[in-house]
Amino acid sequence: MIAGMGIDIIEIERIKGVFEKRGEKFIKRVYTEDELKYCHTFAEPFTHLAARFSAKEAYYKAVGFGVISFHEIEVYNLPTGKPEIRLHGETLARWESIGSPRIHVSLSHNRLMATAVVVLEGERLNGGNGT
Q1: Which domains can be identified in the chain, with CATH numbers?
Q2: pLDDT tens digit at each of 131 positions of the chain
Q3: I need a surface site. Which of 29, 71, 81, 96 has the fewest CB within 10 A?
Q4: How far apart are CA 113 and CA 51, in angstroms?
Q5: What per-residue confidence (pLDDT) applies to 66?
Q6: What pTM was estimated for this model as a whole?
Q7: DSSP characters for 19-68?
Q8: Three-state DSSP class for residue 6
Q9: Which residues pair with 104 in a beta bridge?
Q10: Which of 48, 49, 52 is nearest to 24 (CA)?
Q11: Cβ atoms 91, 67 nearer than 8 A
Q12: What is the DSSP letter of 99?
């Protein structure tokens, strides 16, 4: 059963612009060290940073309640390249309190835009959307 779904799209230049304006403060507040390391292995790191930001927004929309911190939502890739979401801290505790449905995430991007879809699979969310 689908317990929640979220989608987000963002202009890559918007993430680049926020970084240029706010610098490390923005980056450290939103991304984990592992996300930053991964994205900086590419010639165009902002493409991958934007996709991860979009996934965090899509997760927020899928659960339907306030997220403690985007930094606590980590997007990583399996060895096969498939993206996954790992939660930390208060966000993980809140996730466990609503029944921990399975998280599916898909990312895509082109030269200009990055997008993500998050689908939550499981029972109704306890205390999130659908209650």
Answers
A1: 2-121 (3.90.470.20)
A2: 888 899 999 999 999 999 999 888 888 899 999 999 999 999 999 999 999 999 999 999 998 876 678 999 999 999 999 999 999 999 898 888 877 789 999 999 999 999 999 999 987 665 544 43
A3: 81
A4: 8
A5: 67
A6: 0.89
A7: HHHHTHHHHHHH--HHHHHHHTTSS-HHHHHHHHHHHHHHHHHHHTS--S
A8: strand
A9: 119
A10: 49
A11: yes
A12: T
Nearest to 26 by CA among 36, 41, 34: 36
Sequence-distant (6+) residues with CB within 8 A of 80 are: none
- Report strand pairing: 113-121 vs 83-87: unpaired
Q: Give Dmax over CA atoms of the chain in angstroms.
A: 44
* Amino acid identity at 98: I
Catalytic residues: 61, 109
Is residue 97 a contact partner of residue 126, using CB atoms and an 8 Å limit? yes
Query: Quick check: 38 and 74 in contact, CB under 8 A?
Result: no
Inter-axis angle of helices 45-63 and 12-22, to 10 degrees? Answer: 100
